UniProtKB/TrEMBL annotation:
InterPro entries, A to Z: Lysozyme-like_dom_sf, MltB-like, SLT_2
UniProt name for this protein: Lytic transglycosylase
GO biological process: peptidoglycan catabolic process
A single GO molecular function term of this UniProt record: peptidoglycan lytic transglycosylase activity
Biased composition (Polar residues): 49-64
Signal recorded as keyword: yes
Highest classification ranks of the organism: Bacteria, Bacillati, Actinomycetota, Actinomycetes, Kitasatosporales
Length: 582
């Protein structure tokens, strides 16, 4: 649970193994089928082999609840009512506010990223595994959890080591990060992935509307299409980097797809088993405003849904005390924590990125590459580098995000996602920083130029002629291309010129009309359409006859000159009358 990059160190491998065996048994007991979207069901959907574990994780790879969905149908019987902490049909019941947040997030993503095909049931599955649907829907009227839901501090003691990144602002811990809220984001990820899902002007990881929308955007990055099994697997693994986690979420996803119902807030089923086999170690609700002492591990509480087991005197299970291993009076040596790769980073260096230039609306053909180095210039692997697009620009990374966090590879290099140019032209700054380490950032400059065309051609070959004082029967239509491809959205200018050698505006001959019907012989502000076509308005002729030139130019240097002819209509002489016969 939580959101960031780093390999998870799990305690209680036996519990995870048991969960994996249970998942396999459940797969065999449920018949394969097709869901309402016509996709493969989880029972016969094997995670794609390409979706393997990586260093990335949205949750900091924190522990999660391993409870499996029941075997019986999720549809409740009319006589079955919700019961806190219950099982069976109540498993499918999702608290009203939590369910509303999932569905609103799906609607928002359908508009913002339609190609992602995010189902709200996926958010429900992750929310069930991460926090038991916000601890059974214990939220207020605005969707904020009654008590904070915090994961264990990620101090490397059985978990990933993630030092504090928010000065305790979200998790109350100024030494190490902890997963926060119903979707269990860690602060360093919430800093860029957070969203305002309930339009109250705040991005609160403890609010289910904010957290559900943030989770949706997180799962929809990288242009993933969640209707495709491979991308779905990758997205789930990016949330928590564990194959057991992937299998479990898939199981709950399919369960919710088969049916669910709404239950009152606060009456949802509470989870029981956890992947670390800890008795409520995470996520543990805390009193509002409560903080975790810096450098300390939250004290485990009773496992949800089970009474606390009484402890023997002394708090341990051993009745015979062991003799001290250190003679009395010997000064104790405080434990030392070995430096992490992040601790060794002294600076960032460019890794042969090259010139970053793209036309508006296009993808940059180069990607930013940054290398993390020690003071001696040695590359550092497994360091998280955050790339942030700063300033007033609509340029984003692929997928629409303006922040991306990437772990350095074995060569110490982090490669940012591809940049996608927006419509605003000019210089864009992308800043690379080390997550969890206060070293100077490294700025990259990317240039967005205007859309351009390098060739123009008429789409037809009909003669452009007109009688004096009339209207040209055919309009001028051109097609713009750039390197042979359609050039859409390219600015153009059309001018009636004096001659091929004199491009100044003529004062006689054909003309356009402005909105007030006045004569104009230069049109600016023209743009090609989505197909690269430029359709000029009607042309009119004054009383001057002759051949005239219309010149069209575009950004990028494309130019085409078209001939226009104004001539009086030919008159036909009457044929001589026949001679009268003799």
């Amino acid at each position: 649970m939580a959101a960031q990059f780093g390999r998870r160190l799990r305690k209680g491998a036996a519990t995870t193994a048991v969960a994996a065996v249970a998942v396999a048994a459940l797969s065999a007991s449920q018949a394969p089928g097709v869901n309402d979207h016509g996709r493969q069901t989880a029972a016969d959907a094997t995670p794609s082999p390409e979706a393997s574990a990586s260093d990335g994780s949205a949750t900091g790879n924190s522990p999660y609840y391993t409870d499996l969905p029941p075997l019986k149908s999720p549809n409740p019987s009319p006589s079955t009512g919700p019961a806190p902490g219950g099982t069976g049909t109540t498993e499918a019941g999702i608290p009203a506010t939590v369910l509303d947040a999932y569905k609103k997030a799906e609607t928002a993503l359908r508009e913002a990223k339609p190609g992602c095909n995010l189902p709200w049931q996926l958010l429900a599955a992750i929310g069930r595994v991460e926090s038991g649907q916000a601890r059974g829907g214990r939220v207020d009227a605005h969707g904020t959890t009654i008590k904070k839901i915090l994961g264990p501090q990620l101090d490397g003691n059985g978990f990933a080591l993630i030092k504090d990144t928010d000065d305790g602002a979200y998790d109350g811990n100024s030494s190490y990060d902890q997963a926060v809220g119903p979707m269990q984001f860690i602060p360093s990820t919430w800093a860029w992935a957070g969203r305002d899902g309930n339009d109250d002007g705040k991005k609160d990881p403890n609010n289910i509307y904010d957290a559900a929308l943030a989770a949706g955007h997180y799962l929809c990055r990288n242009n993933w299409d969640l209707s495709q099994q491979g991308d779905l697997d990758r997205a789930i693994l990016s949330y928590n980097n564990s194959r057991d986690y992937l299998n479990l979420v898939m199981r709950w996803l399919e369960y919710y797809r088969k049916g669910t119902h709404e239950v009152p807030d606060g009456t949802g089923t509470l989870p029981d088993n956890r992947s670390d086999d800890g008795a409520g170690a995470s996520p543990t609700p805390t009193a509002p405003g409560a903080t975790t002492p810096a450098g300390s591990t939250p004290k485990p509480g009773p496992r949800p849904g089970k009474p606390e087991t009484p402890q023997k005197p002394g708090g341990g299970g051993t009745t015979t005390p062991k003799p001290p291993t250190t003679p009395p009076g010997t000064p104790s040596t405080p434990p030392t924590t070995p430096p992490t790769p992040t601790d060794t980073v002294d600076h960032l260096e460019d890794a042969a990125t090259g010139k970053l230039t793209a036309m508006a609306g296009d993808a940059f053909d180069r990607r930013i590459s940054t290398r993390a180095e020690t003071k001696a210039g040695k590359s550092v692997a497994k360091v998280r580098v955050r790339f942030t697009i700063v300033g007033d620009t609509d340029t984003t990374f692929t997928g629409g995000e303006d922040v991306a966090t990437v772990a350095t590879n074995s060569s110490g290099v982090a490669v940012a996602p591809a940049l996608q140019a927006g419509e605003k032209t000019g210089t864009v700054t992308v800043r690379a920083t080390v997550v969890g380490r206060a070293v100077p950032g490294l700025d990259y400059k990317a240039t967005v130029t205007e859309r351009a065309a390098d060739a123009l051609a008429r789409t037809g070959n009909a003669a452009l002629t007109c009688a004096p004082g009339g209207t040209f029967a055919n309009r001028v239509e051109l097609k713009a291309t750039y390197n042979g491809a359609v050039a859409d959205g390219v600015a153009a200018t059309a001018t009636l010129i004096k001659s091929a050698d004199d491009p100044t505006v003529t004062d006689k001959g054909p003309y356009f009309k402005d909105a007030d019907g006045k004569t104009v012989r230069t049109l600016t502000g023209l743009k090609t359409d989505a197909k690269g076509l430029l359709k000029l308005p009607d042309l009119y002729a004054d009383d001057t006859t002759g051949t005239f030139l219309l010149r069209v130019t575009t950004v990028g240097g494309a130019t085409l000159t078209v001939e226009l002819t104004v001539a009086a209509a030919e008159t036909t002489s009457p044929s001589p009358s026949a001679e009268p016969s003799a």
